[in-house]
Specification:
By secondary structure, the chain is α+β, with helices and mostly antiparallel strands. It has helices at residues 3-18, 23-43, 83-92; strands spanning 46-47, 49-55, 60-66, 73-77, 105-106. The strands form 2 sheets. The chain has a 3-stranded antiparallel β-sheet, with no helix packed on it. It has a two-stranded parallel ribbon with strand order 1-5. The longest helix is centred in the N-terminal third of the chain and has 21 residues, at 23-43. Bound molecules: zinc ion. Zinc ion binds at residues 67, 69-70, 72, 98, 100-101, 103.
């Protein structure tokens, strides 16, 4: 559980710990929960997306590696499996966040 999710849980639990004393208080709490949920979603690593396309120059299927949130292009690979692809993923693991939208990225293989 990351620190943002812990904060979200704490805020969500406040009204239940101390009782809901006003409609305004509940509305404010719910607005905070919605904002924090956006942060939790952005900070939670999500698997990168591999979108296939036909590479005309090599006459092979290639893959655009995309951000799972905004579909920003993070790279291109000619392989989806095998040592080359595993090395490609390993070489990009230091890219923790999408440079376009800030989404946390998961570069792990499917079996990790
Ligand atoms: Zn993105």
């Amino acid at each position: 559980m990351n620190k943002y999710l812990e904060a979200l849980d704490d805020v969500a639990a406040l009204a239940y710990d101390h009782g809901c004393i006003s409609v305004e208080g509940v509305i404010a709490r719910d607005e905070h929960v919605i904002l924090l949920q956006e942060l939790v979603d952005r900070a939670t690593p999500t698997k990168i997306v591999l979108s296939p396309f036909h590479d005309v120059l090599s006459d092979q299927t290639a893959y655009i590696i995309q951000c799972p949130s905004c579909k920003y292009g993070l790279g291109v690979t000619m392989h989806k499996v095998g040592t080359y692809f595993e090395n490609y993923l390993e070489g990009h693991r230091d890219i923790k966040f999408c440079s376009d939208c800030g989404k946390a990225l998961d570069w792990s293989k499917d079996d990790e």
